[in-house]
Amino acid sequence: RTAASLAQDALQAVREKDGEVGAFLRLDEALSEVPSQTQGTSLLAGIPYAVKANLCVADRETTCASKILKGYRPPHTATAVVKLQEAGATLVGALNMDEFAMGSSTENSAYQITRNPWDLTRVPGGSSGGAAAAVAAGFVPFALGSDTGGSIRQPAAFCGVVGLKPTYGRVSRFGLVAFASSLDQIGPLTRTVEDAALVLQTIAGHDPLDATSANLPVPDYRAALTGEINGLRVGIPQEYFGEGVEEGVSRAVNAAIEQLKALGATVMPVSLPHTSYALAAYYILAPAEASSNLSRFDGVRYGYRADGVADLLDLYKKTRGEGFGKEVKRRILIGTYALSSGYYDAYYKRAQRVRTLIREDFLRAFADVDVLLSPTTPTMAFALGEKTDDPLTMYLNDVLTIPVNLAGLPAISVPCGLSDGLPVGLQFIGRMFDEETLLRVAHAYE
Ligand code: GLN
Questions:
Q1: What is the catalytic activity of this protein (predicted)?
Q2: Residue 399 Cα, ligand 1 centroid: separation in angstroms?
Q3: Quick check: CB of 101 below 6 Å from ligand 1?
Q4: Which is it for the CA torsion 127, 129, 135, 139, positive or negative?
Q5: How far apart are CA 46 and CA 35, in angstroms?
Q6: What is the pLDDT of residues 158-213, one digit of tens each?
């Protein structure tokens, strides 16, 4: 098979079947030829893939599923995408998401909803819902998403695919439109752990264009997939199995724990005592950073511009008023409030302190165990429209993924059977920059 025919098949599948799923926002019909020197040398040569719509691709409309970026064609390509191009993979399009990655159901897209391929009446999760749905529907073997508080792992869990959030700094964020810069990380959504290892291998590494990318060697991730986890110490954070975790989810996760024991792992309970403060800290810190990052969308430099304006201030107000959706405005308001003088110490500073405590919880736990295990989400995929009127219940769906971002750790969600016919996700959390152990245990379990 040639690269062009593989990509044509992917495009054809999207044209035929994405009408009911709604995963794609942009289809790249004019495929660029695979550079001949990469063919045969890279395992990704000729493999079609797609990216979440907050990853910039030069000269291709990159909207972040927001009206305010309608028509925006960036001059640059995200480093992760450049690396995939160099490996010979073929980009076939951009995927739907919650506007600016704010949400857990992809219902906050300004353009369309995406349906869960397992049950079209349910959400695919979010914010990388298009990416998870595209992989689950079989349109592409892998996709890139971004994870600020769970946006790769939660949709992966809902759609029954693998989702990996690398350690903060493992993958360059250059060309990823920033939501909360201290939490954002790009990662793969795939069908198998081996594919996740392969994609991470390709996109990881230091990048002079991102000062927060780590200058560390990238290990051979596929070599880590030995199938051997005898003696591996797996910690079960007791706080992650509390109320709100559906019975079907805990049943599936408990079965996974038994399977790991049978493979020779030592399973022990651990405590992460500050877990219950993570969500509150996140919803101060992430909106605070977002309110700053999103100030650049002013109607002058990017995408959408309101017409009929009286003066410059009116241009800003109308453009932002018309261009941003409800959830994005809510975050900007919360963030601006939390950062304003008089409130800064009470909210932002305090949340930063909580963030440190959460990080220390993890460090303490990793003195005794090699990896942590939990459900990825408290519930299976919920119905479309079920949580759109109540932002707080929507936010609660991320309680088990958010602490990981606050601590900067790597984590992976792998499919863990079905409950009521819907996929359940199992989350493994690793030490900083120890994606190898994470991939090894996830692969042995899978
Ligand atoms: N659902 C969370 C939020 O709305 C996390 C989103 C993400 O990881 N991008 O902020």
A1: L-glutamyl-tRNA(Gln) + L-glutamine + ATP + H2O = L-glutaminyl-tRNA(Gln) + L-glutamate + ADP + phosphate + H(+)
A2: 11
A3: yes
A4: negative
A5: 10
A6: 999 999 999 999 999 999 999 999 999 999 999 999 999 999 999 999 999 999 99
Distance CA 186, CA 27 (A): 21
Sign of CA dihedral 433, 437, 440, 444: negative
- Predicted confidence (pLDDT) per residue in 391-434, tens digit: 999 999 999 999 999 999 999 999 999 999 999 999 999 999 99
Q: What is the structure's pLDDT at 36?
A: 47
Tokens of 243: 């109320």
Model's pTM, two decimal places?
0.97
Q: How far is the CA of 208 from the centre of ligand 1 (A)?
A: 27
Count other C-beta atoms under 10 Å from residue 144's C-beta: 27
CATH topology of domain 1-446: Amidase signature (AS) enzymes (3.90.1300)
CA–CA distance from 433 to each of 168, 408, 430 (Å)? 8, 9, 8
Query: For residue 243, what pLDDT is reported?
Result: 81
Active site residue ranges = 52, 127, 151
Nearest CA to ligand 1 atom 5: 149
Centre of ligand 1 to C-alpha 328, Å, is: 11
What letter would DSSP give residue 42?
S
Domain layout of the chain by residue ranges: 1-446
Q: Is the minimum distance from the CB of 275 to ligand 1 under 6 angstroms?
A: no
CB burial string 336-370: b at 16+ within 10 A, e below: bebbeeeeeeebbebbeebbeebbebbeebbeebb
3 state SS of 375: strand
104 lines ligand 1 (CB under 6 A): yes
229 lines ligand 1 (CB under 6 A): no
List strands edge to edge, sheet with 142-146.
Answer: 24-27, 90-95, 48-52, 142-146, 186-190, 162-165, 411-419, 422-429, 371-375, 233-237, 266-270
Token code pair at residue 369: 């165990």
Q: Is the CB of 147 under 6 A from ligand 1?
A: yes
In Å, the largest CA–CA distance within the chain is 70
Among 116, 109, 103, 102, which residue's Cα sits nearest to residue 157?
A: 116
The span from the CA of 416 to the CA of 446, in Å, is 8
Whether omega before 127 lies within 30 degrees of 0, making that bond cis, reads yes
Q: What is the pLDDT of residue 225?
A: 98
**Phi and psi (nearest 5°) for 122?**
-115, 160
